[in-house]
Structure formats: structure tokens, C-alpha cells
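User: What would this chain look like folded?
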Amino acid sequence: MFRDSASSALNSLPEFQIRVSNRARRVRLTVTPRDGLVVVVPHRWRGDPATLVAEKADWARAALATVAERHALLAAGPDALLPHIIELGALGEIWPVEYRTTSSASVRAYAEGTMLVVSGAVDDADACLAALTRWLDRTARERLLPLLAQAAADVGLAYQSARVRSQRTRWGSCSSRATISLNRNLVFLPLPLVRSLMLHELAHTLVMNHSQRFWVALEALDPDTQSHRIQMRAAHDFVPPWADA
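Assistant: Here's the prediction, encoded as C-alpha cells.
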């Protein structure tokens, strides 16, 4: 009877995927609109992910419910995702988007005054999304890196190098060589949260772990860090679905 009940419980688990990470030191569960429930495991981990999901099943179902609408939109396909206005909270900018058909077989996105123009074969929604993503990559690199440099100068800290990437679950990271990586989608967040995230990564140039010493160092740089940490839990709500596609 116990075995049957256990088997039934495992069969009723929410769907999940497994991602092996060379950087992970412990197993963790994440939920995103694009990927759903993901079990991130260290490279040499040999446990049973289903057992872990079973232990966190209530949390997983609740987390999946919060992203269900966004997940459905992503699943609906590129036509449902194309934006008509883009808000870049970190930069204080709002970009109306115009889709302009031309004779070009390709699609590109570019600023024209205060408007973002997507031109070319705009009947191809996939190509439009790709063009918007390229524009987002360029804009994030051009605008986030100077913000990081300014934050570092403000608090008197230095880093070796910095880059902007499309990261699945991390807003930022700092390597042992003081290379800071920033998530391109930070451009959608309010500026105070972006600066707080940058100060978090800069604090890692002083303390690489998340020990008490690190949090003391971070609070010296960002006195509102506790409030910012709470707000960052819902930060993904600022990111439009098309940027996750």
C-alpha cells in the first residue's frame, strides 16, 4: 500500500526538466515562464530529482501557477509576442514600435527619432523577434556597461572586465577574476533595482561568497539592500514575454 501511494505521488508531480551545471554546488529548483520547472544539479550529482520535486511539490505548483499566463503566451508563438511598445525602466525610455514592410528579404530593428522601427519582411514573426532581440542585445551592452562603471566609481571599487549576456536564471554574477556578467534583461527593471544588483556583484570583488562578511560589505554599499532583495523576487515581472522567447 505504501509503495503504491508513493508511486502515485511521484506520477502526479508537475512536469520538470533537469539541467546539469558545472557551477552549481547544490541542487536547486527554479521556475521560469520559458522553461517551467527546472531542477539544476551539480555535474557529479547522482540523486533522484523526482524525490526532490516531490518534497517541494506544493511550492512548485504555486510557482508554476504564477507564471502560467506568461508561459501560455510564450507557447502561443511569435505572432502573439510581438510588442507595440517597449519600456526600458532602467533607462527611463519608452519606445513605440512600428512594423514597416519593405522589399528587403531580411528584418532589422533600429531607432528612428523616438520610435523603434522594425522593417523588412515583417510578415515573418520569427524574423521580427530575432531583429528585436538583436536590438535588445546592442542596447543592453551600450547602456548597462556604463551604468556599471558609474556604480563602481561611486563606491570606489574596481572590476577586471564586464559583459552583458542573455542569462536564463541569473541577473548577474562575478567570477573569481572579477569579471562581472549582467543579464541583458536588466534594462527592463527600475533603475534602483539595477543599481542594487550591480552593487551586489561589485561587493563580490571584496568577498566572493555569501557569508555574513559579504552581507555586511554589501549593506555598506547599499543600505537598502534588504528591501531591494525582496523586490528582486518579482523582478522578472518587468521583463516582457518577447524578451524571454
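Residues 2-75 form one domain. If you want, I can go into more detail on any region.
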